[in-house]
Amino acid sequence: MANVAVYNMEGKEVGTIDLSDAVFGVEVNEHLVHMAVVQQLANKRQGTQKAKTRSEVSGGGRKPWRQKGTGHARQGSTRAPQWTGGGVVFAPVPRDYSFKLNKKEKRAALKSALTSRVQENKLIVVDELKFDEIKTKNFKQVMDNLKVVKGLVVINENDKNVVMSAKNLAKVNTTLTSTLNVYDIMKAGTVVLTKDAVKTIEEVYA
């Protein structure tokens, strides 16, 4: 069972917390982590790329010249792919790039991602994140205190003051425990969890 320090908003150590091995101490499955990231990126794709095949390009209904005797190569349409203004060979059409991972794979991938952050000492636990007002300066000060330049802050409840205060920081993102995903974890340099968030994640994924 991993034991990590708990910090306050001033960056001072105020205690320790035991992280469950069932979530933060599993064997890292790099393949599942990779698949989870690929799935999320694939599911974001619009898939609206479109080009016209020769059957969709306007014109070209008449044979441009007779079959024999002109000295030209035989042609059946001016909209064949080799002609300027012709159709595209194997033209892309709108498609759905998304694919599914089953629930066990998703859970295993998330646990692996969290475990990798613990192993790399890139997981920080804070006792709480509370702000009296929406102010980017205050949030940045907390990140500076924790020595976080690029990170993902995971909170348990949608606290507007926390979320809005972090919104203007280009390298810091916030997410809820209910929307936590592998891509955001792996993209972040450091994962910052509140104690409540740790408890919720362990309850859901243990």
UniProtKB/TrEMBL annotation:
InterPro entries: Ribosomal_uL4, Ribosomal_uL4-like, Ribosomal_uL4_dom_sf
Source species, domain of life: Bacteria
GO BP annotations listed: translation
One Pfam family linked to the record: Ribosomal_L4
GO terms for MF: rRNA binding; structural constituent of ribosome
One Gene Ontology cellular component annotation held by this UniProt entry: ribosome
Protein keywords: Ribonucleoprotein, Ribosomal protein, RNA-binding, rRNA-binding
Segments for region (Disordered): 43-85
Stated role: Forms part of the polypeptide exit tunnel.
Subunit and partners: Part of the 50S ribosomal subunit.
Sequence similarity: Belongs to the universal ribosomal protein uL4 family.
Protein name: Large ribosomal subunit protein uL4
Organism this protein belongs to: Eisenbergiella massiliensis
Gene name of the encoded protein: rplD
